Amino acid sequence: MDEWAQRRRDAAVERAELLARRRRGEADRAAAMLRTFAAAARRAGLPPRPLRVQGYGGRGTARTDLTGWYLRGDRTAAVGTDGHFYVLTARLSVLDRLRGTTAAPQEPPLVLGAGGKDGDSVDLSTALTRLLPGWED
Questions:
Q1: Per residue in 23-76, pLDDT tens?
Q2: Origin, by domain of life (predicted)?
Q3: Which of 19, 54, 84, 95 sits at 20 to 30 Å (Cα–Cα) from 1?
């Protein structure tokens, strides 16, 4: 391999590693915010709600064994009482709708809906403050 191609490959690997470190740092900060929020919400007596998973394209919902607080008005993301982040959309079968389904914790973002349509994104801290003003105090 010639020297130019090797330098380009090395630069691409370095950029990918930098991006991965940055993404991990953001997820760690978001996870800490969610844990802090969940503890503050419990102390403040903010009642959690049963969380439901929505089918893709609005095709029905399914119950889960989770409780928590929806972060978005469309109920596609939530923080559980366990302080974890959940994406609440999935492909749902008829059995899922009848019996319920599970939702696994996901890596939380600092911006909900980033990269989506204009107006669809909101900072995580803003979403949490809408639910419980002063939760960071």
A1: 899 999 999 999 999 999 999 999 999 999 999 877 899 999 999 999 998 899
A2: Bacteria
A3: 19
The answer to whether residues 97 and 60 touch, using CB atoms and an 8 Å cutoff, is: yes
pTM of the complete model: 0.84
Burial track 68-85 (b if 16+ CB lie within 10 A, e otherwise): bbbbeeebbbbbbbebbb
Question: What residues does each domain of the chain span?
Answer: 3-131
Q: How many CB atoms lie within 10 A of CB 120?
A: 12
Backbone angles phi, psi at 97, to 5 degrees: -65, -30
Is pLDDT at 117 greater than 70 in this prediction?
no
What secondary structure letter does DSSP report for 83? S
C-alpha 40/C-alpha 107 separation (Å) is: 21
